[in-house]
Amino acid sequence: MRCAVGCGFLQRGDESGRGLDDVRGDPSHPTTRGAACKRGIRETADPDGTRLKRPLVRRKGDLVATTWPNALERATAGIEAALERSPDAVAVLGSGQQTNEATYALGKLARGGFGTRHYDANTTLCMASAVTAQYDAFGSDGPPPTYDDIPNADTHLVWGANPAVSHPVLFRWITASATADGSQLLVVDPVESETVDHADVHVAPDPGGDLALARAILARIVERDEHDEAFIASHTTGFDALLEELPDPAAAAARAGVSHAAVDRLADGFRDRALVYWGMGVNQSVAGTATAGALIDCCLATGTLGPGSGPFSLTGQANSMGARVCSAKGTWPGQRPFADPSHRKAVAEVWGVPPSRLPAVTGPGPVGIVEAIDDAVEAVYAVATNPAAGLPDATRVRDRLEDAFLVVQDAFHSETVERADVVLPAATWGESEGTAMNMERTISRVRAATDTPHGVKTDLEIIGELATRVVPGLFEEPPTPEAVFEEIAALTAGTSADCSGVSYDRLEAELAVRWPAPTPDDAGGYRYHEGDPDGENDAGGPAGDGTGGASSWSFPTPSGRARFSDAMPRALPEPTDDRFPLTLTTARLAESYNTGVRARNDDLVARVHPRTATRTLDSTPPSALEGRSESMGPPSVRIRSRRGAVTAMLDRDSRVPEGVVWLPVHHPATNELTVPAVDPRSREPHYKQCAVTLEWGP
Known about the structure:
Layout: E1 9-13, E2 20-25, H1 38-45, E3 56-59, E4 62-65, H2 68-85, E5 90-93, H3 100-114, E6 119-120, H4 128-138, E7 155-159, H5 163-166, H6 168-178, E8 184-188, E9 201-203, H7 210-223, H8 229-235, E10 236-237, H9 239-245, H10 249-256, H11 260-268, E11 274-278, H12 280-283, H13 288-302, E12 310-313, H14 320-326, H15 341-351, H16 365-371, E13 379-383, H17 387-390, H18 394-402, E14 405-410, E15 422-425, E16 434-437, E17 442-446, H19 459-470, H20 481-492, H21 504-510, E18 512-514, E19 529-531, E20 551-553, E21 562-563, E22 582-587, E23 605-608, H22 610-616, E24 636-640, E25 645-652, E26 660-664, E27 690-696
């Protein structure tokens, strides 16, 4: 598993039992039926990263090999020393790259064992804005549609995402549907991405202009009297308050940097069944929650819900959905409300700890956690994540991490490992047992096809052994994947993310099951809806008019209705100026993922529009570049922000808009430039826009 599509893989271990001999798509898996992408296969079968195979501890400034007992004793001593001061003096950073069982166990240790509020499951870096917007609108996380809805959509609107690169298998399904008669693909992205190559319409807002554009679309829909008044009246709240705040469509379009005609063309897409997909271009912003909410508002206002339509947030990391359901990061397992006393009591009883040990608040997110080092935080336990490269303003992050007692648990060497006091080598996919959830809420089994390398333990084993030393009794026995899953499933019973009808035996028989699944015979489909949305209901009225019958809607909110949002565009945290006249944006490369520890090109390449390069750089290159031949490759440039400067090779690329510098998110140097501003609701970092300047490099 490399992304959240959830492709089923067949993995065959080699004859030695150490490593994988073959990886390919599993034709029997009900989600993807044998489909798989090259990146997922290659990174699983033959990753490029440097594998960690022995525990390490820092002695006299250097990381040196040691035994597991010594490494665990050293980790225990550092964590216990911090806990003597306060539960919040220990920070835990988890990941969407773990199994459900491991991420649950880590959350149980962090929240129920240590009792810390300084815990994050890494999903804050990619999905927290979408999650917050979905809770705001629907009272629950997880998209309403499923993959089954893709063939039935007439319009596919992809916004701030590049699934042709990030989710290739999913994108095959989208293009297959969008190329059918009467269907279309609309793409909103400042950059002419690989997804744009397949689009019927491409709208390119200014970086940071997404919320203004989304509000312009809704304002134009209302102006054209194309909103669904019956659906709004019967199934939603808050529309009148939103109407009072909606901007003039033309003014909002101008603020977004697009034409009025472009707004009209996007508004047209909501006349038919439309699926609205969005990704990191929306989420990773100080306006991420607001923009995701505005896209959901467009769906609610037009009644664009039901089979073949609706808002569909695209999840990034392989098990981000599992982390959101199981990790106890933003909610208790099963999406139990974090502050609700009855749910806190229920979780504490299962974990065998007093409710008072559980933290009262969810915590400040990864950026806030790192900022708390040297103040509230003394020790950091990082599992399957690389904050030294992945967090914004990375130079400051690295400095902060070096001031903490740092325990790193990972399968591969990383920038965070380089700063660790203790390194615990962990198993990876193909070596671990458990389960994972994909972006459409489907649970699949994860099996070990090969033994772990000598000296390596699974995440679940390591978490269990550390818990035994620091919090004896938290796990009654060494945790096993099946026993932990049974505990997870039981805790979700009766919640909006009910998995209590799922078991290892059921997954063995069916391979994959979508939640909510409250009984062994249930499996989730389109959420919040029952019946035929296009038919007539039993009361004789149109489907969805609120009179009951063949079609009905029910949302897990206090009123039972979906809720409109009302946020409007505000100033960006770091606009361009005379000193820093260009905008930096970041995105993915086709063959890389996350911070690239498994597949990274060491060369940092900056894509810049030719006219921007000509206008910004001196017309005459510096003497260091004189006489340089084309065989020596592209010249280097220096990209500078208020936080740092990095050197990159220049790629003059007209697919990048003028005034923008594009860098890959995977390279460890990129985040030396990014701004540490966060969304005020979700705490997700503002990766997609900051001010930079460009000059010739050394």
